[in-house]
Give the backbone structure.
Amino acid sequence: MSNQSAQTAGTSNDKLKVILAVVAATAGVVLFYFLSDKSMAVRAGALVVGLAVAAGLVWFSSVGRGFAEFASESVRETKKVVWPQRKDAMRITAVVFAFVLVMAVFLWGADKVLEFVLYDVILGWKK
């Protein structure tokens, strides 16, 4: 990943773009429900337009550029990962399932032992 410092505050232009994007997305959702008497195509169109305007506003802000840079760096780092072979992945998955099964049985047994000790031995409540 890059060693760039994180920016916590952008310019007022960028803040305005993000605020307008939130307003546009909210307007799209509100219009979707407000136009309940219209056809689904009109309602979906209002929603899509609102979300598209919001995405466009965010895309041209520093937040959007930062997100795009982060996404591209994430894809680049993911390509560097050495993924296990199918055989190894299946073996690891089997070990995890076996461990979960053993822990489930152990916790069930511990619960039953504690239930017996608490209710039958200490409190004397028989079921």
